[in-house]
Design goal:
Distance between the termini: 41 Å
Number of strands: 3
Strand order of the largest sheet: 1-2-3
Radius of gyration: 14 Å
Largest sheet: 3 strands, antiparallel
Structural class: alpha+beta
Number of helices: 2
């Protein structure tokens, strides 16, 4: 009815999932828990990192996981302007490779 090819749902620390037109469903791994200070900018971080991950050729589940981690890290800062910087812990968030399943963010 609306011409959508898919819908992305984010679930905070539980990760994110995509429902694709035609019935397909893709879920990313959980992102891990963080201490939330402010959620401003989390959605922007999610969309930006997901877009960049897919542009780098990452598969959708890995891109969803990477984007969820970036959104979580954004929530650890007060305001969207105090965002994580390149080289900050964990550096894997900005690497072009998928984050290993053993990585935790607490």
């Amino acid at each position: 009815e609306y011409g959508l090819s898919g819908v992305i749902l984010t679930h905070g620390a539980a990760g994110a999932e995509v429902f694709i037109a035609g019935g397909s469903h893709v879920r990313g791994k959980p992102a891990g828990n963080v201490t939330v200070v402010d959620t401003v900018g989390a959605g922007d971080a999610f969309v930006g990192v997901l877009s960049a991950s897919l542009d780098l050729g990452m598969d959708l589940p890995a891109g969803l996981h990477r984007a969820s981690v970036a959104a979580g890290l954004t929530c650890t800062r007060a305001s969207a302007m105090d965002r994580p910087r390149v080289g900050e812990n964990p550096p894997l968030v900005i690497s072009p490779s998928p984050i290993p399943s053993t990585t935790t963010f607490m």
